[in-house]
Write a sequence for this structure.
């Protein structure tokens, strides 16, 4: 399914291609987040225009609402959303474990209360795979146990062991039901190298169509995060075959560049949409808070280097007015720009790797981007 | 500026063309409402795709936020919004008079408190014209006094007289400052024929580039409304030249059809956008409340006779999910469909008049539309 097509000479950055039933996507790739079956504020037609290669959805959210059965009856999630590209579905492990007070974990599965109607729900790893098979997503993620930071080594081991047990059961169930889509393994183990190593080794033994790095960006800080990523991609580079590496929930432009340099291939993050709808926009000179007073009489586009329709038609002053006046059009336009901007950003990363100039690109980009942030 | 190009043999319905500096629009026309400088939920790019001929904005709202100066600096409202078609600006009389407790009216002008920051503001009829000249809108409406229903004859006369005094001052001020755009007269007089007649006569004497019917749809009921409209368009039909007749704040599909039959040429209404963003969609079989349970498993488009991108891509079930999940994409998609639907509806009215079949079209349309509403 995954093929590395070019490796950067000065880092672990690489170009690759991942094949799915809904088309290939080129890596490094950034997937915007469509938690409930839509990118917040955008349509699937917008995604096509933007050129988003794929998206991430959340099986837990869609299971609760509208319900797996409705999506299945609609002909699967691709038809339901009218999006024909690759869809990755997160299992919802992270969401369930965010409901700390509302859930109980046993080796058998998780019991939790729906955040929508309070109903008690029990899901096994097999249920979670079945939900994703019913949704018809292209990349399926198993139920895992994500621990918060910091977590004692003892509990991190329990959670990691359980994640592996669940991966084993997920793999067996998935292989009986689906052999067209991909099942990724999720690597847990908190910030402990021994646990991360053990988890990755065993996950590879069980069999994974790609490697998802879980339990990162939970407060551990950049250095610890990059150490863990580097440690794992180093181990992966010594395997016989190439595995796509997916860093879940990452990230900022800096996080993406640093992680690509360490060999990460796929990212998803709510940053472009969450910041967009609250009035913060990405530019090549850093982020701008459009809703702030300095934009009131700023008749320039969000980013003069951007060629999205928002930047060619509207000024910061207009967008600020819309956000200030509570007009959802403002949230829509800035979200559109941000998702477009991230897609062009990741395209430029791929072009830099293709030209053997990734490290230069990374340095130049960050010098410009961070300089303005500090102003 | 206005030319009637064809008259329906069986009613007062007519085709016309109104010229502005930002292009002509064909009548009957329906303008969606962009109170604060955007159609709620849509972009000006969407309006282009939908084929909206023009829009209505509110001078009062834009004066308060972002402020006339900012719009002027941006190069006028057309550039600020990136909309290059005809823009009608309502004076805000209706909005000011909705603030009953917060305003004081004298012949000199109105004193009121800003609904945004509570600041006390005094506006003369001349100020209101100046604001619209600064915005650069194509059709300007004078300050008027709109009374509620019912209002005693005595006060309706006071308000009507004041509306005329203000029209006289507005006309004089407008002619000194702007001779490229149009100033419409607003006809008040509540539900009293004598007052309406007097108002129209005097307004025509003062000079109007179009006739706006104000103070309708304020609770007086269909029969009274249609009587007043019919009475006024009958008077207008006996003038030497043709005046565009604009029925402010109207309406529903039925209101539009009945008013077109009485000789009304232009409409604006928030119905397609307000209903759209709360989950109600227009179809040729009547309105559907998409958020209701029957749509949960309805895998049909909103309207199988509609060719907008929402109807060709998404099902009622998906849209209901989005609205129920609080996703603004749902509000956007249904609003888009509704504004598209209204534009096609008014196009079909024009086509029916062109073919000499307006009355048949009206009957057939309402039979189908109302039948379903009653179900």
């Amino acid at each position: 399914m995954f093929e590395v097509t070019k490796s950067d000479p000065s880092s672990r950055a690489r170009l690759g291609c991942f094949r799915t039933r809904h088309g290939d996507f080129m890596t490094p790739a950034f997937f915007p987040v469509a938690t409930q079956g839509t990118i917040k504020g955008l349509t699937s037609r917008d995604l096509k225009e933007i050129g988003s290669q794929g998206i991430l959805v959340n099986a837990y959210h869609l299971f609760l609402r509208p319900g797996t059965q409705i999506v299945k009856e609609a002909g699967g999630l691709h038809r339901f959303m009218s999006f024909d590209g690759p869809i990755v579905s997160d299992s919802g492990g992270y969401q369930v474990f965010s409901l700390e007070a509302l859930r109980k974990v046993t080796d058998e599965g998780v019991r939790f209360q729906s955040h929508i109607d309070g109903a008690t729900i029990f899901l096994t790893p097999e249920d979670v795979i079945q939900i994703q098979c019913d949704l018809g997503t292209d990349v399926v993620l198993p139920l895992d146990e994500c621990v918060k930071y910091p977590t004692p080594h003892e509990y991190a081991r329990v959670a990691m062991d359980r994640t592996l047990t669940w991966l084993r059961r997920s793999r067996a169930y998935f292989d009986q039901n689906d052999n067209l889509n991909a099942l990724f393994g999720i690597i847990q183990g908190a910030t402990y190298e021994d646990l991360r190593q053990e988890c990755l080794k065993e996950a590879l033994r069980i069999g994974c169509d790609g490697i998802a790095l879980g339990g990162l960006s939970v407060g551990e800080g950049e250095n610890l995060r990059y150490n863990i990523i580097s440690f794992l991609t180093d181990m992966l580079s010594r395997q016989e075959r190439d595995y796509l590496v997916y860093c879940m929930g990452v990230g900022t432009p800096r996080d993406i560049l640093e992680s690509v340099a360490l060999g990460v291939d796929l990212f998803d993050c709510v940053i472009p949409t969450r910041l967009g709808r609250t009035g913060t926009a990405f530019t090549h000179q850093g982020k701008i808070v459009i809703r702030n007073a300095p934009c009131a009489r700023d008749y320039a586009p969000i980013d003069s280097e951007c060629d999205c329709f928002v930047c060619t038609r509207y000024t910061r002053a207009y967008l600020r007015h819309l956000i200030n006046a509570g007009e959802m059009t403002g949230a829509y336009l800035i979200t559109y720009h941000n998702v477009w901007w991230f897609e062009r950003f990741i395209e430029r990363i791929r072009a830099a790797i293709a030209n053997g100039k990734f490290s230069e690109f990374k340095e130049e980009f960050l010098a410009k981007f961070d300089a303005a942030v500090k102003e």
Q: What stands out?
A: Chain A is about 45% helix and 20% strand. The longest strand of chain A covers residues 14-20.
